[in-house]
Design goal:
Two copies of one chain form a homodimer.
Chain A: H1 8-15, H2 26-36, E1 39-44, E2 52-54, E3 58-60, E4 67-75, E5 82-89, E6 94-103, E7 106-115, E8 123-126, E9 129-131, H3 133-136, E10 158-166, E11 172-173, E12 176-184, E13 196-200, H4 201-210, H5 216-222, H6 243-253, H7 258-274, E14 277-282, E15 290-292, E16 297-299, E17 305-314, E18 321-329, E19 333-342, E20 345-354, E21 362-365, E22 368-370, E23 395-402, E24 412-420, E25 432-435, H8 437-445, H9 452-459
Parallel strand pairs in A: 5-11, 6-12, 19-24
Antiparallel strand pairs in A: 1-17, 2-3, 4-5, 4-14, 6-7, 6-9, 7-8, 7-13, 10-12, 15-16, 17-18, 19-20, 19-22, 20-21, 20-25, 23-24
Helix pairs in contact in A: 1-4, 5-9, 6-8
Amino acid sequence: MQPEVYGADDFLASAMVSKSPLTLDAGAFLKEREVSASYEVERAPLGTLPKWHLGDRLSHASGRFFTVEGLSIRTDFGPVPHWCQPIIVQPEIGILGILVKRIDGVLHFLMQAKMEPGNSTLVQYATTVQATPSNYQRVHGGRSTPYLEYFMEGTRRRVLFDQLLSEHGFWYLYKRNRNMIVEVPEDEDLPVESDFTWLTLGQLRHQLMLGNRVNMNARTVLSGISYGAADSDRLPCAEQSDGFHAELLKSHRTLRSAADLSGVLTWLIDQKAKFSSDVRRTSLRDMDEWICDADSIRHRDGRYFDIIGMSIQATSREVGTWWQPSLEPRAGNVVALICQRRAGVLRFLVQAMVQPGLTDRLELAPSVQFSPGYHRGPQDFPPLTEYLDAPESWIRLKAVQSEDGGRFFRADTLHLVVELPEDHEIEAPDNYRWMTLALLNRMTHFGYHVNVEARSLAACLL
Amino acid sequence: MQPEVYGADDFLASAMVSKSPLTLDAGAFLKEREVSASYEVERAPLGTLPKWHLGDRLSHASGRFFTVEGLSIRTDFGPVPHWCQPIIVQPEIGILGILVKRIDGVLHFLMQAKMEPGNSTLVQYATTVQATPSNYQRVHGGRSTPYLEYFMEGTRRRVLFDQLLSEHGFWYLYKRNRNMIVEVPEDEDLPVESDFTWLTLGQLRHQLMLGNRVNMNARTVLSGISYGAADSDRLPCAEQSDGFHAELLKSHRTLRSAADLSGVLTWLIDQKAKFSSDVRRTSLRDMDEWICDADSIRHRDGRYFDIIGMSIQATSREVGTWWQPSLEPRAGNVVALICQRRAGVLRFLVQAMVQPGLTDRLELAPSVQFSPGYHRGPQDFPPLTEYLDAPESWIRLKAVQSEDGGRFFRADTLHLVVELPEDHEIEAPDNYRWMTLALLNRMTHFGYHVNVEARSLAACLL
């Protein structure tokens, strides 16, 4: 919903710089951090979690953090008209903020190597700040969050991106965080705390392609980056890009006409009017088919996901040991974007997808969003699932990325980008639409229009 | 959220035309329609409403229409941290659409003289189409909705405005309708059905200033009209406007810089992060302080509003008699916009206001939104209430407008616009902000950013 694109040229230039004297080896920096502290993360029965109580909902004695509640969903989207599931409720708006600064003429991103207990790869690059209101509003003891002040009212420098964006609509009820990119002036002194380092966008792109190196929160913020529109086919940096990346840049920089944009918005409202969704919170105890006991909350047939306990022991941190509930999805989540050169520009197939926890019923989702726990079997598989087995030569990205390891346990999602040959014909239902990256990015800037799964893929296409 | 302003010049030109050969007397047309059919509208005990059942919620046997449910609200916005109230739940997205067409060089609006049982003035100008999904999706018997096809997917002409906008956040849970303005080409033949007539925007403006002539649904759609930005102080039509209207036009046509807009959006997110709001649906039976019986649903101290039954007898319509529940507010609702010339342009003081039924916690609201039912007494009155008693010479608009008479019973709201002298100093809390009409209109185009009370006032400032 930003009115225009800020910092576009600087972002693009930084994306083309794959080395920086400030962080010679971005992979090694992560590794160092990982070995400098060791953690033991284990599953624990819900009943053993101190101060967490399982009743009509699962909640903490202090009333803080989050709750897990029951949800009853009725919708005419997809093959299942009615189901119940637990869902995480956390109405607070947190800040996910990245500080950027032009150093030696190149925009650098201040990234934090951060441990998240639920991730398969424990330490990954995170945003400069991940802060909840309890960090930033209330006065409380303990270490303050470094760099937080740069994202607070009245003390910000130049805001390049600032938007409330949704998170996993199957796991969270109406969850959103504030995604920000704030630029610090070149001449402002900014000490680099331990665990933090400066990376160019080119370095981040490389880490993103490797997978499991850039955490979910960082990916959603990075998806807000725009490269601006180019007037001609000639891209200033094309010579530095391989073929597919040059195509991506062109798709990012294609001019969006007002009519295109207005057409997409009207089409999206059509989809919202077409599909119904009625969502009601219920007691965990009232969910048919679900078992809630001292061990976990789980579906009787092993579907959807489990709510489990997690114990975390950090050997070298002041916090020591802590416990928390966590959501463990069924293994095998895949998100895929199908793309194709159409009318000379790479376009991506997105779908308008209803998810129970979304703020306004539906958002744009990847071409395929495949969650084994949600499908009773092949008869329930979503359209286009067959493209997950596309020939190797069509695959442009194949990387496992982790979801928020602060809430989810080993939630690894395979990210795929599949490029169809230009002469391949594909048929998709009416709630699917082809978009350039420029248009998709513009929709991200509008707020609740692009879901976190699609944004996560978009971050891998910078 | 429209990317740019469509039809701006045509709208402005139409606003300056106060007479049209197509409808010589807009007031007389309404009067004729009113006498051509007579209605008797009476209060009826809830228990006598056929097919409506009062249990944990109030619902229709068919599952259609809407339900009235209980709501429990906790918020740190305003003086009351916790309360319960009934709320209308109607998740369907209806279409509120106005057809416009250039006739003899002037844009005309096809308005319907429509009876709504709850209104004090029964027949008012309504949008060309007010349709729910049961009208436009399902095949069913009965008269089809005239002109509906012009608003449907694939058959629209030129879409000038299309946005999902919220409705009364104290009375509806997450309610929104699709607000549309669609232009029909000049050469397209469009028969005018009985009860319909063509008005210029100038004629509509006059009806709006009189009060109780243009219904709520029409007002919210009209609030989407933009006049576009003027490059200089000189307004093409200024000579035809009185002093205050010329000031309004200038405020409408002031260029909005990208920085202004982005500043407002960031400030609004600040407000969303600052205030909490936790809303839970409950059984009507679980609401302390509320009485639910065969007569009505009402607060034990007579606060908030009542849910009553309404019987409607139409003497000349095929429908004959029908019954429905209705919400009757306490009398005395006032909404006021305070404005002042600041830096040479008229600016309006709006507030970021939490309301329990809003989709995303808060939206921009009028300077004062005064609902007697919600205040326990003067100690609860909202900031700036004293300006409701501003000297007569400061008052620029004073008109009673009705809320949706299809749902609400005698919900009349006094609309006030108060212009402060330039040297008058006013202090408002941090969640208040001055905006030109141009900026406020831009926020309306973004979707869930301007509440229906503020939009209703904005429609009176065209």
